[in-house]
Amino acid sequence: MAVPCVRVPTSRGEETRSALAKRDLLDREREITAEGGALYIPVTDPAAVPDDFEVVDYDAPQRETQTSPADLLGFEPSYERLGDIVILDEDDDERARRIADAVVESDLRAATVVNRASKVRGELRVRDWDVLAGESTETVHREYGYEFALDIAEVYFSPRLATERHRVIEQVGAEERAVDMFAGVGPFAVPMAGRGAAVVGCDLNPAAVEYLRENARRNGVDERLTAIHGDVRALPDEHGYADWADRLVMNLPHSADDFLDTAVALAGEECVLHYYDIQHEDDPFGPGERAIRAAAEAAEPTYDVAVETERVVRSYAPHEYNVCLDVRLTAR
């Protein structure tokens, strides 16, 4: 199977391999291969490879010496990777322990293995974890060329939404003014600033806001990103962002509708709203659209509402979908 590889002359092979290793970009599940005077070095995140390297698709073979958790367990376990943390979601404590032991014994790179011990709860959207291997719940996650430091015990972060975040971020223009109303550690806000936008990110969780500031510095966008700790309802009046935004991100699926009056107050004369919702499969988009139209009609001035995209992001629960509505608001 073809995978992304950096292609360099063999004479530059070790120099290039070392440079990619320092950025933690080497795909250690694939072999480095020489062919026709060139070296093909598999990488995990082609978007993060420096521009002076050539990235191509190449059929690099799997490393035959690698031992996976499945090799040790006799079955394929389910887990997520977040930086160097492996995340399990097992109801059986003994099974979770077996999988954690196998992860540690395998060639999978992991500093910590955790099992979910609660649902996401509270207004700060955090959960409890059982730490099965390692000690630290802090890590650095890499996504589409950006780095995000975070502590899963203190903040909410879902690696499953990477593709959806990238879809939105690709729409952002360099001169825009964007507000991420529930910013967390910055997976929307930081890349939007990376596209050249002026960005405001707000969150109730003080730990998330500290990581947001750190991640803005880490990715070189701190001059274009303002991080605000507090209730997003204070942004229009207390912080002076009324009628300011060209783009709004509302990624708070269970209760975003409670903040639509604030969204409309933040919107400029024309504004694109990315509204995330969780609804039943029978009508996944209708409740969100109706709530947005009601808020737009109640605003002063009122807004015309044009739904540009209706997108199912993922299945959330039986018969329920996590969806996104991309909506253009235009002041009358």
UniProtKB/TrEMBL annotation:
InterPro entries: MeTrfase_TRM5/TYW2, SAM-dependent_MTases_sf, TRM5-TYW2-like_MTfase, TRM5/TYW2-like_N, Trm5a/b_N. It holds the Pfam family TRM5-TYW2_MTfase. GO terms for biological process: tRNA methylation. PANTHER family: TRNA (GUANINE(37)-N1)-METHYLTRANSFERASE (PTHR23245:SF36), TRNA METHYLTRANSFERASE (PTHR23245). Residues 79-331 form the SAM-dependent methyltransferase TRM5/TYW2-type domain. It comes from Halobellus rubicundus. This is Class I SAM-dependent methyltransferase family protein. Keywords: Cytoplasm, Methyltransferase, S-adenosyl-L-methionine, Transferase, tRNA processing. GO terms for molecular function: methyltransferase activity.
